Bifunctional protein FolD
Amino acid sequence: MSATIIDGKVMAAAVRDEVAARVSELTAAGIKPGLGAVLCGDNPGSATYVRSKGRLAQELGIHFDLRTPAADSSTADILGLVRDLNEDDSIDGILVQLPLPAQIDTDLVLDATRPDKDADGLHPFNFGRLAQGAPSPVVPCTPSGCMELLRRHHVPLRGARAVVVGRSALVGRPMAMLLLNADCTVTICHSRTSDLAGVCAEADILVAAIGRPGMITAAHVKPGACVIDVGINRVDGALRGDVDRASVEPVAGWLTPVPGGVGPMTVAMLMHNTVALCAARRGSGVPAGSH
Ligand code: GUN
């Protein structure tokens, strides 16, 4: 058996078409959705991600307002930018690219974003709604992109054993909550988990979000399992996931590649969130859509 490779580029194109249709509805009602982004620091990965977010926003007819404060900015400087974007009526979604430089208090910055403009779903209000299992217009982009990949490939979720490796606020924790809300039985693993391979090998759905290239091997994978690789690691100039593809592909039932798996979905889901926030805040009469 060899895994079905889940093509994130094809899936992301489908999400983008749906978003484009909703942008057209809003535009017809005289509303142009807007996304404000804050990129602070010299992280080359962050700059690449934000560039691709800006490119897609513009392709879709979403106004993109990029702020690039100096790497030595203070927390107060960043809070000032977030407040500007909060008050700007042409901005529906705000994205503060993470990680921020070490001198900046990331929690304060995320807390300062208006919850109804929180394009990343990282504000404690929206995160709390997710934890409660309550409906929310915004869910963090990478985990919601993973859920779209699972749903669009009809991977059985109800009652499935799901294991998430990684407990970050950006991916691992919200991913576990989304799987739980989809009726999976969920285990979260991390760097202190004992017998990691044994726990992972019980999973019908295994999500690797650890940030360690090639760490998940065939020994971690139950035959036929769906393996979602969230890792984006730069190794000798190339991108590598957290999953050792050569070892896992013959065992898994489904596998997301790196690059071309989860990455394109993250960007597409950010546009989805921005348009959903726009419709909810300004688009009375224009359907908000759901995911
Ligand atoms: N850094 C890496 N991924 C993300 C993301 O999805 N959102 C933000 N804000 N920062 C990131």
